[in-house]
């Protein structure tokens, strides 16, 4: 007997099918926890738009996790 297995991605947010090759795996870290969600392009665009303002003012952290690279403006003016 022959068997065929089909892997179908489902959007974790709205439960709709993700067309082949169009899925977006989004990884989020918040409060020391890491999250992963599979999204269709429409929902990937929505989450990107929601986070854009926060990312614009956020400090990027290296993957090595060496802490903060920048010093605060207040610390620089006290000298």
Q: How would you summarize what this structure contains?
A:
This protein is α+β, with helices and mostly antiparallel strands and 79 residues long. The protein contains two helices and two strands, in the order E-E-H-H.
What does this structure look like?
By secondary structure, the protein is of the alpha+beta class. 29% of the residues lie in helices and 18% in strands. It has two helices and two strands. A two-stranded antiparallel sheet has the order 1-2. It starts with 23 loop residues before the first strand and ends with a helix. The model is unreliable at 71-79 (pLDDT under 50).
Features:
79 residues, alpha+beta, two-stranded antiparallel sheet, 2 helices, 2 strands, 18% strand, elongated, disordered C terminus
The assigned structural class equals alpha+beta
User: Could you tell me the mean pLDDT?
Assistant: 85
Number of extended strands = 2
Rounded to the nearest angstrom, the radius of gyration is: 19 Å
- The tally of helices reads 2
Strand order of the largest sheet: 1-2
Instruction: Report the uncertain regions.
Output: 71-79
Give the SSE order as H and E letters: EEHH
The assembly state of the depicted protein chains is single chain
The outline comes out as elongated
Portion in helices: 25-40%
Span between termini:
78 Å
Largest sheet: 2 strands, antiparallel
Q: How much of the sequence is in beta strands?
A: 15-25%
Task: Describe how the helices and strands are arranged.
Blueprint: E1 24-30, E2 33-39, H1 41-57, H2 73-78
Antiparallel strand pairs: 1-2
